[in-house]
Design a protein that fits this description.
The protein is of the alpha/beta class. Helix 13 packs parallel to helix 14. The protein is elongated, with a radius of gyration of 42 Å. The protein has 27 helices and 21 strands. The protein has four domains: about 200 residues, Beta-Lactamase, CATH 3.30.450; about 100 residues, PAS domain (Beta-Lactamase), CATH 3.30.450.20; about 180 residues, Rossmann fold (3-Layer(aba) Sandwich); about 140 residues, Helicase, Ruva Protein, domain 3 (Orthogonal Bundle), CATH 1.10.8.60. The N terminus is likely disordered.
Amino acid sequence: MLAESSGSYAAGLEPLIEPEGGLLPAAEVLIRQSQERCRQYGLLPDATFLSPIPTAEEIVRRRRTRKELIDVAEPFMRTVLGVSATARFLITLVDADGYVLSIAGDSRLQAAFRKHNFFVGARWRENEVGTSAIVIALLARAPVQVVGEQHYCTRFHPFTCAATPLITKEGELLGCLCMSGHKANVYPNTLGMTIAIGEAITKQVELRRALADVQFSNRCQAAIIDSIFSGFMLIDRNGNIAQMNEVGGKIFGVDATKSIGKHITEIVNSRPVVLDVFETGMGWTDREFFIDSKRGLIRLIKTAIPIKNASGEVVYVIETFREMDRVHEFATKVMGARARFTFDDIIGNSCAIRQAVDLAALAAEGDSTVLLQGETGTGKEIFAQAIHNASSRSRGPYLALNCAAIPRDLMESELFGYVEGAFSGASKSGRAGKFELAAGGTLLLDEIGDLPLDMQAKLLRVLQDKAVMRIGGNKVIPVDVRIIAATNKDLEEEVQRGNFRRDLFYRLNVVSIKLPPLRDRKEDIPLLAHHFLKKTAARLNKSTTAFTREALLALTRYEWPGNIRELENAIERALNAARSTEIEPDNLPANIVAAASAKGPGPNSTPRLTQAAEPSSGMTLQELEHAALARALAANKGNIARTARQLGVSRTTIYQKIRKWNLARA
């Protein structure tokens, strides 16, 4: 028997003619055509089956890919088994490729059928198992029942089977449903019941998909709304960009509209980690990434949200992202300060500078307020940035405010901000102060000794309360900021004079670091001079790479009232005046040469490194270090501790240099 069907296979069949001249029933047509094809395959009726035996892994993998269909069908299959008329039948779910996905029914009957290629994972194709209801239902896309000898293979002659295809309204063939048993148990409603169950399964699959589509649409819309102020990208399972907003396009340096439909690797220069979400099913929240994009290397904070279908498969990934530098850029728009320097940028091996660095490194491990004291040009800003970058706040903002450069009447608004309409000329939207902008990071209050007394009291209150109130506002805003204060004044003396509040001094002077003037660390001058020469020559595209012995000695004898800043300026001036590969005394500023000549060589005028190295004309920095270490080792008879103390470096550094240059320890 054959139910009416509009299946494309069945509709194209020509009816067969019986010997008496009448038409055969449609079911008989399909069965005879299948048998004829089996003969053409060369399949013998009593042949052993050619169908491959699947592995357990293959069965699990196929069932996983058909999870949606299995989840819908199996409850129906179990329900039908409760009907007495079907108790002696097996109900089988087969996918569109002919693989058995699930079998429900009596275990003894399943064991009997298993001998005939009927088990979960088995493949049923016409050229392998011959004529059967499963084969015809899938090929013809029509319900059909095959009984006894209508099967092509003799081993199926004792059985009956009725199968119906599972076809969605869009024409997608999901598979088929089959009822099988001994032919002695066949009854007229077997095929009708199979068709009814199949239609119920198909409709349930369609309902699930429709619901999943609605849920997916709702999730996408919600994610878009939540991400409207961030970059947004929707990526499908093939890695193609399904949607991108304008913010995302700007961040990646591409046209958002034109990027839709492109593979994500077309907008970045490496395989994106987001593609792993399709394999793992796991997204993430607020992770930091460095992306090689069309506009260069960008630093992003990203969130990836997997969107799954009803079977738990990831079909889309929503990515939201924003640039990590956005807060920094907003802050530096006002201050123009960035935390660029680290402790590696601090040049010098003298005891004085190494002690300052060691203390600063310890300060970076904590969160206490730091007071940097030193003359102008000694590197207080570099130390402040290095402390920030070595601290737990390094990912937060770094701001610097010069207390001596801000007009008195603007100081409060600069530090604490103001609300809308706080005063004439105020921004309509108000403005955050430096404490708010530096939240989570570090605020350097440079030239703190020049802060007016009335502002000192307000600053003290903020440091005590860890909160600010904007000018004109009434809301207390908590702020988590580390304060580093810097000054070229003696604050204790300023306290005695009444120019600086004693309580504020104690609040600031928790970790006190005094930076030595350059005149007290002259052994570092050759290192600094070569460093500035190399850096400045590269910037100015100059070929000068060394100092004459006389020029280097002149630098070491000068007192440097302007400290490192003056030294850097002198090197650049000399570099512009140099006409050879070496800087000579005549290239140096006249006041430096004159002061050095007037002073003449003295017991304290030459740094230890110069004494040890005896610099000759054109020596490079590395050559100076090599010579200094060799002479120091010889002078100390190979004693590492004494050599380290003499040169103002650690013993580890001495060992490293010995290995590097293969020096003898004497």
